[in-house]
Automatic annotation (TrEMBL):
One of its GO terms (molecular function) is oxidoreductase activity, acting on the CH-OH group of donors, NAD or NADP as acceptor. The active site is at residue 53. It comes from Limosilactobacillus gastricus PS3. InterPro entries: AKR, Aldo/ket_reductase_CS, NAD(P)_OxRdtase_dom_sf, NADP_OxRdtase_dom. This is Aldo/keto reductase. The lineage of its organism: Bacteria, Bacillati, Bacillota, Bacilli, Lactobacillales.
């Protein structure tokens, strides 16, 4: 098994690579072009952006530069809080596609749940799928309550729920809930933004496998049966992060990594974003 051949089948019948490439904070065209080239050559096929990242047009240029068949790529974008609501969602996705220079995305996500436009945004998502502007629809940062609420009116449920997930915030209950509801969990900040690279337990496991801590964390994500989208703009790390299919963590090592959970988020609390209708200043 390797990165190119490792897929999940989604509930709607489409396929999604298990490991993808995140482009948050890469906002320089040259660096983005180099990163996308290196990632594609390494075997990444899923590229994850968002309206909020301000780099959809740059990603569009970088993908055009790759000059590969559209069906070789799996492109995700996300509708920002400011663009939620039926008409605004449709309009903003049309603009995203223009910027990305694509006729469709493979996966469209609601970036954060907000109460103001909760059902209308999703109705637009269902229609955008019917219109062929996205192959699959999903959510991001939705908790159990948000998904249960959505189910009261949705004609079609999300196929993917993209969540913050790393050894300090392992989301085991949420992953189980997604699994029980045929939703693939996709981890964002799967490396915890690089903050746990000197953790002694992780270092010791990495040494025993002659792998890096980043590879151990990503292998833990893989063995947790979820999808994940690490980000790096360095070719060596891009390759390193994909070289995780040639070793296996023991169940004891998995337990050890699970036990590092501190239930601490790097980013926003979804319930507050839902309440406020937008993201809020945080560390
Ligand atoms: P990440 O966990 O992928 O961490 C990236 C950082 O880890 C890099 O900037 C670098 O500092 C470090 N790193 C990467 N590879 C390394 C290696 N091999 N060795 C040592 N350090 C390494 O964090 P992220 O970028 O926040 O998350 C990944 C992607 O998830 C984003 O790019 C974005 O596409 C997506 N995302 C989604 C949401 C959401 O709300 N849905 C939020 C944040 C990010």
């Amino acid at each position: 098994m390797d990165i190119i051949n490792s897929y999940f089948e989604l509930a709607d019948g489409n396929r999604m690579p298990r490991e993808g490439f995140g482009v948050y904070k890469i906002t320089d065209q040259t660096i983005l072009n180099q990163s996308i080239q290196a990632a594609y050559q390494t075997g990444y096929r899923l590229f994850d952006t968002a309206q909020m990242y301000g780099n959809e047009a740059m990603l569009g240029n970088a993908l055009k530069d790759l000059d590969v068949n559209r069906d070789e790529l799996f492109i995700t974008t996300k509708v920002s809080e400011a663009n939620q609501g039926y008409d605004q969602t449709v309009k903003s996705v049309q603009q995203s596609l223009k910027d990305l220079q694509l006729e469709y995305v493979d996966l469209l996500l609601v970036h954060w749940p907000i109460h103001q436009h909760f059902f209308e945004t999703w109705r637009a998502f269902e229609d955008l799928k019917k219109m062929g502007l996205t192959k699959s629809i999903g959510t991001s940062n939705y908790g159990m309550g948000h998904l249960q609420l959505l189910a009261t009116k949705a004609r079609e449920m999300p196929t993917v729920n993209q969540l913050e997930r790393h050894p300090w915030f392992n989301q085991s209950a949420m992953i189980k809930f997604d699994q029980d509801n045929h939703i693939i969990t996709q981890a964002w900040a799967p490396l915890g933004r690089g903050r746990m690279m000197s953790n002694p337990s992780l270092v010791s496991i990495a040494e025993s496998h002659e792998k890096s801590v980043a590879q151990v964390i990503l292998r833990w994500q893989l063995q947790s049966d979820i999808a994940f989208i690490p980000k790096s703009s360095h070719t060596e790390r891009i390759q390193e992060n994909a070289s995780i299919f040639d070793f296996e963590l023991t169940s004891d090592e998995i337990k050890q990594i699970d036990s590092l959970n501190q239930n601490t988020r790097i980013s926003q609390e979804p319930e507050l974003v839902y309440e406020l209708g937008h993201q809020y200043p945080h560390n």
